[in-house]
Protein: Ferrichrome/ferrioxamine B periplasmic transporter
Amino acid sequence: MKSQEVSSRVWVLIRTLMIIGLVAGLATACGSANSATTAGSGETITITDELGRQVEVATPIKAVYPDLWYQAELVRALGAADTITAVDTTVNPDKNPNNVEYFADFQGLPDVGHYEQPNWEAIVSSGAEVALMRRNGPWQEAIKKLEPFGIKVVVVTGWDPVVTRKFLPQLGQLFGKEKEAQDLADLFDDIDGTLKEKLDGVAQRTAYFENSADFITSVEGSGWHDALVEGGTANIFGDVKADSSSAAVHQFEVDPVEIIGRNPSVIIHNGVDGQTSGYQPWTREQMAEQARKIAGRSGWQSIDAVRTKDIYVFNNFFYSALGKKFGALAVAKWAHPEQFADVDLDTYFDRWLASQGVEPRTVGDYYHKYEG
Structure:
């Protein structure tokens, strides 16, 4: 009898727990439905992201995790900085001495670590509703790790100029920031219009792009390559094919002898050894020393760009802004100085920095032309 009585009591307890769980589940479901319904206008939008994935998102987005600083800048430019719930190491002001002031908005937010291997639990705990990912980021893993918690994964690559411009209207809708999105689109189109007008009928110059390290270039499929082409130059390694979804298109090692053989008329180098790019510019001497190192490489004195002193060292803070559209404009001004003599980069860059909520700085602080 005692055994039967205990079994009966256990069964009653199990049934009670099941009922409690069911009620809790219904309450959670109702709460989720209410949050989707009451989020701003409560409208659910289906967006087709750049990978062709259809994603339903309750708008306006109230909480987002942007992976990498390109994505964070894009969200902030839309006037939605307050929706960012977590950042990676590239956006954490405590880990970016040259961006302490620039990323002050994000001080104290959870740092999920490296953008390629983020702490998924930290993203979930941050309360994010959406993860805004890049196509060359860990978006597949994000789907596996985040979507079971109701976090939608939207892939829109902020470093890609074509993708950035295409998706500005949709991003404006998602965040309820249509006017800000239109302002960004206008800035983008103003730059694009200037490039097309000034470069019409102008012959391309050949360019070697070096990405942050000796003999590391970028090839077709990367935003770096696109900026060269849009800026009226031909990438001397534009014939190289690599997987556009991998890091290879951004960081492709080349033979220095091959660079000499391809004889670029312009050399454009991203970065200064040992320094991180950011709103706080490097010293003029640091950039000048980097340019001198490049010009002094063995055998490079025969390269046209070295002979004519067409070597440019830049800070990626300005170059990659707005999907590298500023990079394209800078390349055009460097490679075609006569055609762009009356183009003031600051008139465009001031508008971008205003969208980021920081004081303007002259573009001239962020690059240096080799002086010999």
Q: What stands out?
A: Residues 1-40 have pLDDT under 50 and may be disordered.
